[in-house]
What does this fold into?
Amino acid sequence: MAVSLPVHAEDKMSNHHATISHPYIGMWVTGDGHIRQELLPNGRYDEARGKRQSAYQGCYVVTGNHIDYWDDTGFTADGKFVDDVLYHGGMVFYREKS
It folds into this structure.
């Protein structure tokens, strides 16, 4: 299913090459580990919920410390990074430690 992104998102996504770079790429996890969201270097994300792998997938754009999401089903959301913590959708995500 193709998703129509808002015009400003399409502009931002078209400026990216196959690989993008920002300090937030990687796995982000809620404190209880139930929700795991991986921000991929190609501008896509993959979110697992509990035992359900790839529960949500879509694209994202980071501008400064703000992130905008466009799920493949058409759902949109946003979030903010503060002191290496992601606040998104009323949830708090922490960078997964290796």
About this structure: DSSP finds one helix and eight strands in the chain. The first helix runs from residue 7 to 14.
